[in-house]
Amino acid sequence: MNAIEKYKQVKVSAVVRTDDKEQSLKIAKALILGGINLIEITVENPEMYDVIRVLCNTTDASIVAGGVITARQAHEAINAGACAIVSPIFQPGLVKLCQAKDVPVVTTATTPNEAYQAWKAGVHLIKISPSHQMGGASYIRDLLRPMPFLNIIATGSIKLDEVKDYLDAGADAVTIGRDFWFNVPFDTITSRAKTIVAKVEAYTNNNKS
What residues contact 42, with CB distance under 8 A and at least 6 apart? Predict the structure, then answer.
């Protein structure tokens, strides 16, 4: 199963964005302990490649690299073991690089036109960010109404208790950041992860045809 399929299967993933290497590792491990097995580590700080490498070598979780905007970052992340590249922008050159290396790529869009251009370039999963600021779940629903062929991850200031709303609106997956881990003990992170995983599993079972 590649990362695109994994996003669609698990439906909820986490993004860890911090400049502290050890803190990032501890947050990720607390999330994994709670059952979140798809985690995005942003690489604005080059030390985060080591975090990706450690997590890939010591856990069974799927680790993707986020915040990637250059070819060099993509190469470093792939060499560290990232199973997918996530970019906060749509850059055709980066998409082509990932396609050439057979590494899944997720790019970010805000407007319908941006999302369509990414899809047209062969991006199979598109982040819509900032979803909350653009109108929340209703924005996702409105965006998908004329373009139901898009595969969407909703992200951007989304709260844990809003996940169902975004899935109901048509998002294939939801990525949660600070609401998982910001300024709380590690056991709370694990508890939050367990709760949302159970809720998403129940949601998936209830919506099976």
Answer: 15, 16, 17, 48, 65, 66, 67
Supply 78's token pair.
Answer: 């792939």
Report the pLDDT value the prediction gives residue 207, as an integer from 0 to 100. 86
pTM value is 0.95
**Cα(102)–Cα(183) distance, integer angstroms:** 37
Q: Residue 207, SS3?
A: coil
* Structure tokens, 108: 């970010």
pLDDT in tens, 35-65: 999 999 999 999 999 999 999 999 999 999 9
- Our answer to whether residue 26 is catalytic in this structure is no
For 106, half-sphere exposure in the C-beta direction (CA atoms, 13 angstrom radius) is 30
* Confidence grade of residue 78 (pLDDT, cut at 50, 70, 90): very high
Of 121, 142, 147, nearest to 131 by C-alpha is: 142
Q: 130 preceded by cis ω (within 30°)?
A: yes
Q: Retrieve residue 98's tokens.
A: 């990932």
- Verify whether residue 76 is a known catalytic residue: no
Catalytic residue (choose from 6, 11, 29, 127): 127
What is the Cβ-side half-sphere exposure of residue 45, based on CA atoms within 13 angstroms? 15
Instruction: Indicate the angle between helix axes 92-100 and 71-80, nearest 10 degrees.
Output: 30
Query: Torsion-angle region of residue 156: left (phi > 0), alpha (psi -120 to 50) or beta?
Result: left
Considering all CA atoms of the chain, what is the largest pairwise distance in Å, rounded to the nearest integer?
45
Catalytic residue among 40, 96, 101, 162: 40
